[in-house]
TrEMBL record:
Signal peptide: none annotated. Residues 13-45 form the Polymerase nucleotidyl transferase domain. It comes from the Bacteria. InterPro entries: NT_sf, Polymerase_NTP_transf_dom. This is Polymerase nucleotidyl transferase domain-containing protein.
Amino acid sequence: MLDRLDEAERPLDLVDEVHVFGSYARGALEPGDLDVAVVHRTDTEFTEDVVSAMMSGRDPMAGMKRALKGNRRGVQFQFNQNDNLPEGSELRLLWKRGDTRAVAAGRLQAMKVNPAAGRAPRDAMINQFDGLDRWIPLPVRVRLVELLDAGGIEIRRIELADAAPTSSVAVAALARRWKADSPLRRSAAAAVHYAEESGMASKAVWVQGQPLGPRRDQYGAGALWINLGWYDFDQLVYRLRQGAQCLEVIRPTRTQPLHALHLTVHDAAALPQL
């Protein structure tokens, strides 16, 4: 990774800082994944690539991840989330823009082995996230666990059937937005089908920020927000406080199983004030 940063090929020319945290940074002899926090800038080209990836259901940061780690596994990245990492993450600077390769290598060598350091506990993990956490950003996990521990929400994990909606209105709306082979369309269709079968679609349904029907004023009490890949997650508490419920499809994909989290209000008084 240091060699790649030193070469600064696109898009690594946008990276300003790289930090290491977790069990590796603490010197554990058998660390789990290598946790890396990256601070980067954006430009027009990068933003266009991110938007294009999101529209087609791909990981918007896949290019940056690949540029940093190549094909190596076992590396978990957080991008521009340093202020949202769990308390006690203990970020250790590995590289910053302007460093020579030798300076960065010196920081790496300074991360000494500590036989007393065990593997760090999995941050913000609950049973509902098990096996899916690599597709749930750490700040998202932290936020959901905070809301759950406060008694504000309930979280139910669902495996969605690969099926189309029964409503012709829903089918037409999804076809207008996405191509037939889009992972977003497949994921949205499965989520809407589930909502229909479970009775959750009796009122207004919103998919990726857009209503399925013509009404745009029915977004509160009784509404269902279907979000794909954590779209608009910063609006979660507002929507829940308005009386809506959310179905978060964790990883839109063309062929792999589709998992979702159904988020509902348990105690509105325990939700944070906006």
